[in-house]
Amino acid sequence: MTAVLVVLALILTMGYALVNSFHDVPNATAIPVRHRALTPRAALILAALLNMLGVVAAAIMLPLADLDLFVTDLIDPAPALGVIICALLTTIGWDLLTWWWGLPSSSTSAFTGAVLGASVAVGWVGLTAELPLDMSTFWHLAVPVLVAPVVAFVIAWVLVIPAVRGLRHVEANQVRLLARVGMVVGSTGTNVGHGLFHGQRVLLLLLTIPALGGFTSGASDSALPAAVVVTALAFAIGSLFGAWRIARTISTRMVGTDALRGGIAQVVCGLLLFAGGITSGVTLSTSQTTTAAVLGTGINQKYRATNHRIVGQILVCWVLTPVVSAVVGGTLALAISPLLGA
């Protein structure tokens, strides 16, 4: 049974990589495509290539990451693998559902909530006395999900003021050109940052799952090159599908922005994600950071351009994501607990 769980967990990990990159690619493509800084095809190809680059960078930085994210000692393998399977199923399902709704949501928040719910469930039925994740990890993952959107919103809102005043005498065509350059630069940072954050998580899963099943003694460095190749390909393939439902929400349905404000928003989220990815192991939410930056620039204008109904739906989705994921993850864990040794 352990071998079956390992295979299923590895398959779901690759499914998570595909769906996650598909779900999150609008964070880097919506604004540049909306303001014609990039064509849709060029934006998706660029996203695929840069996400692959981010995964490679994540592999280089992997020794700096918290390698105890998935605890492999003192935990029964079947319950630990069950928690991971339930978390991945929940996150994949939530990403697909929010894509269908056209709502940018956090895969990090969904994954964290699902792991917590599944961990509590397997402990409740007496499968293990240890949680597959250390409790400090939840702060390590959840706090940036809450803080990053606020930081992105405030920085984007503030930067609009000097940008508008400083460029008020510049010709409109030059402003648009400058804004489009900023969009491409910001899109690059967003794509690489996404590959760093989520690629590192996928790599850790691919290296840890066999260890939990007893097939390796730990996260083996010898398996890292193969894990990098399959992860990079999965991210690239997923990125090419576009998720235009979410892109429309970010670029037009939520708030209307001109090229200058769009460029500021893309640069802010690109810098935050890229800088955060290379300076720390703390995971940021690409969806929430991007959405908050776009909203910050869009609100800071004289005429009303914000669709408060859509913004409300997005905020409700953000609040419900960890809660729903925890409930679903826990329910799935209870449902499969007889297979895990209960």
UniProtKB/TrEMBL annotation:
Membrane topology qualifier: Multi-pass membrane protein
GO BP: phosphate ion transmembrane transport
Main subcellular location: membrane
Transmembrane stretches, start-end: 41-65, 77-102, 108-129, 141-165, 226-247, 259-278, 310-336
Entry's Gene Ontology cellular component terms: membrane
Pfam families named among the record's database cross-references: PHO4 (PF01384)
Keywords carried by this UniProt record: Membrane, Transmembrane, Transmembrane helix, Transport
Keyword Transmembrane helix attributed: yes
Location of this chain's protein in the cell: Membrane
Taxonomic superkingdom: Bacteria
GO molecular function list: phosphate transmembrane transporter activity
Protein's name according to its UniProt entry: Inorganic phosphate transporter
UniProt source species: Kocuria subflava
Keyword ATP-binding in annotation: no
Signal peptide: none
